[in-house]
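ok here's Enoyl reductase (ER) domain-containing protein, seq below lol
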Amino acid sequence: MATDGKIIKCKAAVAWEPNKPLVIEEIEVAPPQTNEVRIKIVATAVCHTDLHHLLETQEKDGFPVVLGHEAAGIVESVGPGVTEFQPGDKVIPLFISQCEECRFCKSPKTNQCEKAWVTPESRFTCKGKKVLQFSGTSTFSEYTVVNQMAVAKIDPTAPLDKVCLLGCGICTGYGAAVNTAKVEPGSTCAVFGMGAVGLAAVMGCKAAGAKRIIAVDINPDKFEKAKEFGATDFVNPKDHSKPVSKVLSEMTDGGVDFSLECVGNVGVMRSALESCIQGWGVSVIVGWTDLEDFSARPVQLIAGRTWKGSAFGGFKGKQDVPQMVKKYLDKKIKVDEFITHTMTLDQVNDAIELMKQGKCIRTVMTVSSQ
Ligand SMILES: NC(=O)c1ccc[n+]([C@@H]2O[C@H](COP(=O)([O-])OP(=O)(O)OC[C@H]3O[C@@H](n4cnc5c(N)ncnc54)[C@H](O)[C@@H]3O)[C@@H](O)[C@H]2O)c1
Ligand SMILES: [Zn+2]
Ligand SMILES: [Zn+2]
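and the structure came out like this:
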């Protein structure tokens, strides 16, 4: 490859500071170092966690940064020590690494790799300044450098402009239902928040054999999609004067067997817990926030409910993401149906605006040609 071992100058969307539009800049991407892989990003989508970093955190030192973590691309070159990947491989970058060596990777109980939240050194510079990496992936760029433990090699026939969504939202929601909640056949479920994560949770509940799936959202425009994914009932908390947990409890003779919070709001987390039936109800927190603590009455848990959390749907990325790609190719899971808009990376601020206004499920942006 002509670019092998050289600095690549390319286009990226840089977030210079919080709460400001991203700026399309020419950046320099250094060659991959030991155990690193440089990836040409073909397609990337916007997830609410990108918005969270840009608009909702108080951290000023998280900038300038290249956001984006839901993507697919092609390996351009590899650094020393990389044997598993070759230029031309189709890959999905992982925001939770799988080093395969730590005690968490060795346990079948979790996907929380010890190295997962260690921020790797960024290989980006722009106008002489270091630009940070986000989620270990930074996919709003034509090229990015990722540690090999955070890369999944996928089927070479997979359409990258579709399977990019398996890099976060779909796996997160689907896995939260199937792996974390362990939804049972014949059960009644409630999913709070009908973004891509919540819709994927609905899809997971259905795949696990749930008999009744109640979609909860304050934006009724989302209910049509929810039905397409398998929701059987719809509740808009704004239509009721009593708490939504009470509404669900009355609809289900005491509460749902499983609830999933896919919003990222501590009040909704509490409602989701309180919507579960005593004795065996399981509630899973999927939505992300680090601004506030949550609260609940101890009796909720004492009475036999279980409160859990789920990151990336409990999937171990390197081994499980290629399986999810296969499931999509075998038509066992939906992916195309999540895509409501397609754009190019230049339009990233429009894509962010659509999500802010609740007008999209996922916007897939073309970054480079395949
Ligand atoms: N745990 C993980 O690994 C992980 C991974 C990806 C995303 N997330 C988080 O999941 C959440 C959802 O992400 P997304 O990309 O689907 O976001 P999104 O913005 O597309 O969807 C959120 C949905 O929640 C609805 N909502 C807002 N307030 C509500 C309320 N009070 N009650 C009911 N519904 C409400 C919105 O109308 C919207 O439909 C975010 O918090 C995101 O950061 C977590
Ligand atoms: Zn995400
Ligand atoms: Zn590990």
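fwiw The first helix runs from residue 48 to 56. kinda neat tbh
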